[in-house]
Predict the structure.
Amino acid sequence: MTNTAETSTADLHRLMALMTGDEKHGPAATSTLDALQVLYDRVLRVTPATVDAPERDRFLLSKGHGPMAYYAVLAAKGFLAEDLLPGFGSYDSPLGHHPDRMLVPGAEIGSGSLGHGLPLAVGSALGLRAQGLTDPRVWVLVGDAELDEGSNHEAIAYAGAAGLEQLHTVVIDNASASYARPGGIVARFEAAGWSAETVDGRDHEAMYAAFTRPHPGRPRAVVARVEPKNA
Amino acid sequence: MDTMRDRFIATTGRLLDEDPRLAVVLAEISADGFQRAAARHPDRVVNVGIREQLLIGVGGGMALTGMRPVMHTFASFLVERPFEQVKLDLGHQGVGGVLVSAGASYDWPAGGFTHMSPGDVALLDTLDDWTVHVPGHPDEAEALLRHAVAGDDRVYVRLSLQVNDRARTVTGEGFLRVREGRGGVVVAVGPMLDGVLAATEGLDVTVLYATTVRPFDGEAVRRAVAGGGTADVVLVEPYLAGTSTAAATEALADVPHRVLGLGVGRRELRRYGGMDEHLAAHGLDPRGLRARITAFLRG
């Protein structure tokens, strides 16, 4: 079900420029771009034809800030029409500065308020399992500062204890949290019983290997490091 | 008699056997009661531990996959603590679910204000498109719960230890007319009915019984008012006073009218004791109700 045609980085930048009118983009917009590209090109088993199929993989963008990279990837993959991009943020556009699942084709959740995607992903994994759908995988993308939200602590602790193997979290780490975590982000997940690994968030092969590493009986977290937000 | 909460646990256990779409999400509260159901349906009875934000987020996520989640804990922790989750993980995502609370406004007065939630319905009123059931008897709780579970929408079922002596036939919509009169209309919500009937004994008033308060049955109130000589309406609610006043005035917008909203006072009592003492303190015992209702109708 994975899309066979891979996106080109140049094309994604062209699509993002349709929203921003600029070839250069803010850190929030581009921090997720490479991870999204690898996920949608090579990992997620979902296409525009299967957006409603029960067996599809779910991708939940929890870090709803700076969604231009997300919209660009969805457009490149054919989930939404490219001609919607220039209207970004306008009254008649379905594409807001935070995405709304009721408006954006292909978006699994509406997000923007931090700390909702991971708990929703836990519930999605549980809901799929309860229906005997053990093949679909649930992915959620969060930011490193977003992990400060208590709701995420609740979700991480529970998912590890429950051994939710279908659940996958990508943490985009642009060092934007005010306080460093003792031992780093991976330690937080490992302490809760997750399989976890840190990779270079610009290295597509490293991310692909980390995203697809087996993790029997445990949820999986991949921390994708990118340039610090305030660098 | 069993409690509404006992009935909720027993009924939901049976519904889990019948409806593969149904799931129950708990945060420790009532987990003991659901032990047998959890053993039979381990994937559909989920206890997330003492994590109320996750409780609602998990329900929302399950609903996104097509399940019908029932989320349950004490009202304070179900509606107030994770309120943004209720707003965003259900409503904003465009999915439904059933919130079932226990504890109500002062089911456990000795437990103090941390376990009282008189503001739950008013808080839900800030959100669009919630159905709110306030049963007054375990039989009604079961009927309303079955109605809620069968749908796809967002429903709040507010269970309490405060009950009426007997159950009425409730359908999950509209108000029932339980007494006829011409000198005013009193709307009794859920467990306030017995107190209202006692308080209005011998008064020439219509008494409407409301167990489904949202949507508010404005048509029933308009009809009741039209049948009398005066458009005076008293709302008697087991939660924050005035919670339904806006709905009543909206229903009567084109009729000269007066509305009195009775319910739990906003001021924190800082008292323990028993439920009767709290009812009296808020003027919601029959004696307090009669005094305030007659004073208003005379006015």
